[in-house]
Amino acid sequence: MSKQNQYIPSYLDAENPGPWGIFLEQVDRVAPYLGEFSEWVGTLKYPERSLIVDIPVRLDDGTIAHFEGYRVQHSLNCGPGKGGVRYHQDVTLSEVMALSAWMSVKTAVVGLPYGGAKGGIRFNPRDYSKAEVERITRRYINEISSVIGVDKDIPGPDVNTNAQTMGWMMDTYSMNAGQDCPGIVTGKPIAIGGSLGRVEATGRGVFIVGVAAARDAGIDLNGARVCIQGFGNVGSTAARLFCELGAKVIAVQDHTGSVYNSDGLPISALIEYVNEHGGVAGKPNVEEITNDEFWALETEILIPAALEGQITKDNAHNIRARIIVEGANGPTTPEADDILTNNGVVIVPDVLANAGGVTVSYFEWVQNRASFYWSEEEINQRLETIMDNAYTAVSATAAEHKVTLRTAAFITACTRILKVREVRGLYP
To answer: What pLDDT sits at residue 366?
Structure first.
């Protein structure tokens, strides 16, 4: 058994640990840089709590269906757990564990007083009515209510969940608690305590660190080429902001296909088309290219903003981007990471690049607790300050240790987490 597999929980496949195995490899890579805190590194390799729940729901046709739900709390050392809930037919425990761990790193990188958590339900919401999705959501929150709380673990939106989903979650928890609990989730509608700027926060954060990385690389963004995989809130927001700065988005790929225009895609029109048709495929007056051709395009900035594991050893050799800004969680495998680094590609890692979402979620939580709400301008200014400072710190660590930005981000975050663990000690 390899050293890595010693840390695979017994309920996962030791030979194929999936995304959790990727996270463990990332921890192993950063361990030599942790110095006096290295004895605590095992803290990062075991999630504090992994909950699997059954979600029985009566469907519209009167039948009863069962769904599998998860809530994993990786680390609560630095504060309450924080992390979204995703609805997807391919969600696995390994994936949710890894996502919770990346949330621990992400919140620590930007200095938020949170730990890492994540949730998911294994189903495709597109196959169910709105009423069925609501019943699934409410039963899920009821089943995990013992491990979440305003000061314990705060869910938020993720893949295939949105403000309405959060509204159902908040209402369900509040009804059970017998009082209004707006701070139990973030990403809520504005009417029930949501924060201005939350919808665009992740994409805006990707844009902020992308601009900083381009500046460090000496890239003039006026006329620079940008390619984006994934065109939901994150990808479309980043696309719009880069275009406003003078860059041109030459290609977009999503689950329906890939579209291309060497002179730049009409982003506003593309956003409207996707909202109406559900994907980029079929957009008039643009060229459709294959997914393989998308990855091989020459570009200054590539933004993977879809699901994890999209850039692998099979396509990394073909990538001709100068900078990759990871809008998605875990889009690059460790093997691909090595290939891209050897080819001189700068990668701004997910735990830094897409931390804008959790940062504004933190703002929402703070506003809920204070019952005092900020303007969107103030929120965007605070977000820019935090993201800029985090990028500057990670970049300085990378230069100090002569490592990649990903390793530097993990050094920064893991040191913060383990320092807290050492100060708190072990109980009993």
So the answer is: 97
Catalytic residue among 118, 188, 248, 283: 118
How far apart CA 109 and CA 389 sit, in angstroms, is 10
Structural domains present in the chain: 1-46 (no CATH), 47-179 (3.40.50.10860), 201-353 (3.40.50.720)
Q: What is the pLDDT of residues 348-362, one digit of tens each?
A: 999 999 999 999 999
Angle, to 10 degrees, between the axis of helix 93-109 and the axis of helix 356-370? 70
Rg of the chain, C-alpha, whole Å: 21
Answer yes or no: are the C-beta atoms of 355 and 106 closer than 8 Å: yes
Q: Quick one: pLDDT at residue 2?
A: 46
Determine the pLDDT at residue 329. 83
- Max CA distance (Å), the chain: 66
- Positions of the chain with pLDDT lower than 70, given as ranges: 1-6
Q: Which phi and psi (to 5°) does residue 70 adopt?
A: -135, 150
Phi, psi of 61 (to 5 degrees): -85, 5
- Both tokens of residue 256? 């329906």
Strands 298-304 and 225-229 turn out to be parallel
Q: Give me 125's structure tokens.
A: 């919401």
pLDDT of residue 6: 60
In the chain, the amino acid numbered 159 is V
The whole-model pTM stands at 0.90
Nearest to 111 by CA among 348, 391, 368, 406: 391
Distance CA 82, CA 74 (A): 10
DSSP codes of every residue in 145-214? TTT-BTTTEEEEE-TT--HHHHHHHHHHHHHHHTS--GGG-SS--GGGTPPTTTTTHHHHHHHHHHHHHH
Amino acid identity at 389 = N
- At residue 341, φ and ψ (nearest 5 deg) are -60, -45
Q: Which of helix, strand or coil describes residue 111? A: coil
User: For residue 302, which of 313, 316, 284 has the smallest C-alpha distance?
Assistant: 316
Say if CB 396 and CB 410 are below 8 A apart. no
The whole-number pLDDT of residue 194 equals: 96
3 tagged catalytic: no
In 230-318, where do the E strands start and end? 248-254, 257-260, 287-289, 298-304
Question: Residues 297, 262: contact at Cβ < 8 Å?
Answer: no
Exposed, middle or buried: residue 359 (CB in 10 Å: 0-12, 13-18, 19+)? buried
Helix (H) or strand (E) segment spanning residue 267: helix 267-277
Q: What is residue 1's predicted lDDT score, i.e. its pLDDT?
A: 38
